[in-house]
Design a protein that fits this description.
Layout lengths: L1 E11 L4 H9 L13 E4 L5 E10 L2 H11 L4 E10 H12 L1
Antiparallel strand pairs: 1-3, 1-4, 2-3
Length: 97
């Protein structure tokens, strides 16, 4: 298994009034970073967001699925980027070699 970082950029879609207000009340508490529980960042408009997630997976598809499962809000217009950290580390070590 390799370590993957996944970034999902998307638009919230179909939030309930309760979800919208809860997110607005927590806008100042947004954390930016990668973790296995994920981190959600957005502004006061609660329209667009970035979700960062780190996971161990066999391939980038499995990593994307894990990130999408961890994101607990409805969304649309997503762009997903996946980086295999194990490959990056291997390339860096070969260059130093």
């Amino acid at each position: 298994m390799d370590t993957y970082r996944v970034i999902i950029r998307a638009r919230f879609d179909g939030l309930t009034d309760v979800q919208h207000e809860m997110l607005r009340s927590r806008v100042d508490a947004c954390e930016i970073g990668f973790s296995e529980r994920g981190s959600l960042a957005y502004d006061e408009s609660v329209s667009w967001f970035t979700f960062r997630f780190q996971t161990e997976a066999d391939d980038d598809t499995e990593a994307q699925i894990a990130a999408l499962d961890a994101l607990s809000y409805p969304f649309k217009n997503e762009t997903i980027g996946v980086t295999n950290l194990t490959e990056i580390s291997s390339r860096a070590l070969r260059r130093r070699g």
